Amino acid sequence: MEVGFLGLGIMGKAMATNLLRHGYRVTVWNRTIAKCQELVALGATVGETPAAVVAKCRYTIAMLSDPSAALSVVFDKDGVLEQIGDGKGYIDMSTVDAATSSKISESYVMGKGRMIVEAVKQKGGAFVEAPVSGSKKPAEDGQLVILAAGDKTLYDEMVPAFDVLGKKSFFLGEIGNGAKMKLVVNMIMGSMMNSLSEGLCLADKCGLSPQTLLDVLDLGAIANPMFKLKGPAMLQGSYNPAFPLKHQQKDMRLALALGDENAVSMPVSAAANEVFKKARSLGLGDLDFSAVYEVVKGAGGSGQA
Amino acid sequence: MEVGFLGLGIMGKAMATNLLRHGYRVTVWNRTIAKCQELVALGATVGETPAAVVAKCRYTIAMLSDPSAALSVVFDKDGVLEQIGDGKGYIDMSTVDAATSSKISESYVMGKGRMIVEAVKQKGGAFVEAPVSGSKKPAEDGQLVILAAGDKTLYDEMVPAFDVLGKKSFFLGEIGNGAKMKLVVNMIMGSMMNSLSEGLCLADKCGLSPQTLLDVLDLGAIANPMFKLKGPAMLQGSYNPAFPLKHQQKDMRLALALGDENAVSMPVSAAANEVFKKARSLGLGDLDFSAVYEVVKGAGGSGQA
Amino acid sequence: MEVGFLGLGIMGKAMATNLLRHGYRVTVWNRTIAKCQELVALGATVGETPAAVVAKCRYTIAMLSDPSAALSVVFDKDGVLEQIGDGKGYIDMSTVDAATSSKISESYVMGKGRMIVEAVKQKGGAFVEAPVSGSKKPAEDGQLVILAAGDKTLYDEMVPAFDVLGKKSFFLGEIGNGAKMKLVVNMIMGSMMNSLSEGLCLADKCGLSPQTLLDVLDLGAIANPMFKLKGPAMLQGSYNPAFPLKHQQKDMRLALALGDENAVSMPVSAAANEVFKKARSLGLGDLDFSAVYEVVKGAGGSGQA
Amino acid sequence: MEVGFLGLGIMGKAMATNLLRHGYRVTVWNRTIAKCQELVALGATVGETPAAVVAKCRYTIAMLSDPSAALSVVFDKDGVLEQIGDGKGYIDMSTVDAATSSKISESYVMGKGRMIVEAVKQKGGAFVEAPVSGSKKPAEDGQLVILAAGDKTLYDEMVPAFDVLGKKSFFLGEIGNGAKMKLVVNMIMGSMMNSLSEGLCLADKCGLSPQTLLDVLDLGAIANPMFKLKGPAMLQGSYNPAFPLKHQQKDMRLALALGDENAVSMPVSAAANEVFKKARSLGLGDLDFSAVYEVVKGAGGSGQA
């Protein structure tokens, strides 16, 4: 099977490598073309532009760094849109919001001027958004969780590739649902991080060892990889940003906004969100989201208010 | 090794059985003496009263249903206190509050009348509180988590027995710390249950399948046994009380009170506690604590306000 | 002094009447022209279109029902924009969001197509936004509070008219600040309404008369017109929508969003917002915002979840 | 009319003075007897002990500093209890909790030893608790608000005196209700102080003048004496303790506990309470309760966590 692959950052490189190892023929493109060489050594071909990759391959996967990059690769000169069409599929696995996915998927209309921009579907192409859960290590190990939505036929055709990239893929329905599912998961994760922080702090202040609390938690009904991984680092005040606090807070804000649209009252998430905001106001936004523990403890980062 | 065992309810029976199976000689007592027969069939001896058990055994373990029963067995006529003394150890594994453990451990003074009641330590005995985490199944499998505190020497002597009863025991320091550790764990658990409920509800209202959310959660960094066990039941509106909501709310209230004593601000736990209170006010207190999901959904039990 | 007046709803009619009574020459326009007759009886002249009013008057005040009406009157055919220009001032006193005021004030650009729309300032006109606090009665009595922002020179010229319409006007700086000030005030008001509801409910449940609580409150340091006005109606379950709950919740959401932009953690407002959301989810959105009391009591509107 | 008056602190002195000025014959007692001289100059008689005052007067009012003083004056040697009896009334206007009032009113039983202490009612006396709302100035001006409960006949007999001391008195039913009413009022007050703090902080961070916000608030539906009095001081960082933050937080805790007993969910008060706790943890407990503004701003007192 031949696939195109756009974007060879940490995630994209690992994913393209896995496809090559499982016998896929892969045509890669990256904004900095030099980054393609490592993949060429593993058997990849290089495409000069996103358009060239799409022209060559029936299926093209993208793994870009953010919504802006995801839009550029499609709409800019020599972009995906120039070659997408009947019988071709485009699969964006970048982590983007629902609105970005919608723009890539469909034409959109701006203001009263009705400036129509054609997008993948108008050109006749099929589109699937497929953001993933998991970072570098799961990407390398083919253990991502894939949250796909959009064109069901294209999804079905991609399942073998998804099986190489991840341990499990879900088809979630209409475009935007992949992004929404990530928000819901991250919202729960954010509340749990606050709960853990409160528990560690309470233990400490009432004469129990926070490390022992972690040990007890790890043996019980609420044991989970996040507590196990982050807990000990938090006790050491170590917050290397695997997932920056400002992004976690943004996701909680967006999840709460989704709740607002749908009239879902979520007081626990709202309380957690305000603590993350306090953390941001104290200058902790670029640390790992577990740095919310510093706010619960009452210390306060760089202290500016 | 010879041990006494007071209390043969669901938990106690399973625990005493495990001790017998591992070669301990066990003298059992239960308020309803008939319940002892099953254990006798496995090799146990019967003690007529708590005092008789203590007289015979160097170590006596108790597993009673609540604080009131835990106090009765010690202070009532023919109780533990009548025979406890130098060289004897008493280990209460019941789930009780810190105040109850303190009463059993030490003399206490009531009012200005200075009415002194002698307790285990005044009599010369050693005392360990050792509440457990885990219910019927872990008790049968010897997979409890034991949260011990009090007399360190007695704890050390009991470790072989604890190894039979549980997968891990912790020594947490002074009397009361076992109870406090349980409160902290349950507080985190209560917030997490609220977070899960909010996530399930948000998923449902914004067009995602709550069951798929459970599946996605189970593959990620916050996967945990509680979500896996309770989640599907919640989606079916099934709330068999493994841990009644009113007890969960009581534990959150006590944990928040502990936070108040120690000036620990815990807004997420406080928000979760208010939702559990709302659940209680709607008549859901006797259901499993996962019934808080009904409040988040907006339905409302029997509806009386 | 000659002023134009666009919009003769409940508020606009009362305000234009006050201007006439204080000797202003007023040229009125209303979408339903028939509504102008009452004002003509008091000495007003009628303008055929917004453009005609602006052509005739140096200053034109608008009091429209919502953002959409406020935009139409400016940008549609025969709108304000056709005649606004050097030496003319436009004062929009409608309650609109900051974004709407900005659109009326300045050109704006949509998307990459750079479709530029000219607005009041590009045409050479001066613009002041001036939303008011207060409803029908204060409008009739000239007792509004006016929250003005934008062109300071125009504001200064309008002060005599503002003195007729209100008991006090404030100049708050750049466009958008009037809307922001309203949001902050309404946010505080929303939290206070929740506080009152919780207090009334607690009083009732613990054996105190809620009516007596209102009486006690009215004699103390937190006595305020809202408690005095709404409290007794709430106890009777009467929620005639002076300010609909769904609008209050929208304002709280926007105020929280403003807090998010500026990294201000506001846990009390966030908690109050979630209760208003719960009220919306229970079908209470069209009642007065004091209907949040029903949620606190635990009853639940029409009960759909 | 002859009344006894126990306790001549700031409040008591002002109140006894008012009674004298309105023609009451007053027999005063104070722990530091020297403090009585000022009242003697106004016509008061001095009693040597609380018992002596009660022996002489049909009605005795007490205004003590705290629960401990309130209990001492009754139960200690030469205390009220020695002379109280049929036909005599005791009115405690100190601010105490419901439990303290109950102890003064009725016998109570401690522990299993059933140590019975006789109190006012057992001796045949009548008892009214009557805590007040208002501090020094209202006490001097006879403008207190009196929250009475207990013996209705005694209350009715005291109304003329209450009319001298306060602008309004309420009879609230059974003993404890006066204390509960104060808790409910203070809970609402605490939430409102948080709301104001959040609003001031949001205004400041989004480019509005906090002082202008205070001015706008003071003209609207939520204008109240507390905002007017405390607001400007808060903007100057001035927190002279009219009502210490730690007492406000204690009252919120007790109000929430009352809500817990009665299954009243109060998320806004709970959120406010956690912010007050954070303030306590930052060393602000002895400042005025308006110092919670410092926590909302993100500064943090002496910074110890």
TrEMBL record, chains A, B, C, D:
Coiled coil: none annotated. The active site is at 182. It comes from the Eukaryota. Residues 176-295 form the 3-hydroxyisobutyrate dehydrogenase-like NAD-binding domain. It holds the Pfam family NAD_binding_11. GO terms for cellular component: cytosol. Keywords: NAD, NADP, Oxidoreductase, Stress response. One of its GO terms (molecular function) is glyoxylate reductase (NADPH) activity. It catalyses: glycolate + NADP(+) = glyoxylate + NADPH + H(+); 4-hydroxybutanoate + NADP(+) = succinate semialdehyde + NADPH + H(+). InterPro entries: 3-OH-isobutyrate_DH-rel_CS, 6-PGluconate_DH-like_C_sf, 6PGD_dom2, 6PGDH_NADP-bd, HIBADH-like_NADP-bd, HIBADH-related, HIBADH-related_NP60_sf, NAD(P)-bd_dom_sf. The keyword NADP applies. Residues 2-173 form the 6-phosphogluconate dehydrogenase NADP-binding domain. PANTHER family: GLYOXYLATE_SUCCINIC SEMIALDEHYDE REDUCTASE 1, OXIDOREDUCTASE GLYR1-RELATED. Belongs to the HIBADH-related family. NP60 subfamily. Catalyzes the NADPH-dependent reduction of glyoxylate to glycolate as well as succinic semialdehyde (SSA) to gamma-hydroxybutyrate in vitro. May function in redox homeostasis and play a role in oxidative stress tolerance by detoxifying glyoxylate and SSA generated in glycolate metabolism and GABA metabolism, respectively. This is Glyoxylate/succinic semialdehyde reductase 1. It comes from Panicum miliaceum.
